[in-house]
């Protein structure tokens, strides 16, 4: 394979270029990447990170925010040095309040199963009941799942959709009653 054009010539090193200064200025210009939208909106780019976090009532260093009390070597008594830490002024308390409210909201269930897997599990239960060996030999077992794999898939379906599974089993029992 031929070489790319221009790769064969030697590159000269430029002694007059200050690489340290270029690197430092690029680092200084980069703004911090903020994930939380509440913090992002309240962020003041003219202030430092520590000042911004202090204004919002947040801690930059958790070890300084909640210090671990020093214990005496012999006893379990906590040393107190007599000086109390000054109250910090929170200029933007709404940030913490919004974050606490968002954290208190109930979590939505995001795990779902594919429609194909649900249909597969329902077909297997409908035709074979609890006989996993028979399910493994079924012609609809395209992926040649072992009995244990099929059992695992059925258990996943039971855990994800417990009400739907109960209704399905009840309808199967109802069908058997009607047939008999």
UniProtKB/TrEMBL annotation:
Q: Which UniProt keywords apply?
A: Nucleus
The protein's location, in the record's own words, is: Nucleus, Nucleolus
Any Pfam family matching the protein: Nop16
Q: What is any one of the record's Gene Ontology cellular component terms?
A: nucleolus
- Asked if the keyword Coiled coil belongs to this entry, the reply reads no
Q: Which residues does UniProt call coiled coil?
A: none
Lineage top rank: taxon: Eukaryota
GO terms in the biological process aspect are: ribosomal large subunit biogenesis
Recorded family membership: Belongs to the NOP16 family.
Name listed for the protein in its UniProt record = Nucleolar protein 16
- Protein encoded by which gene: Nop16
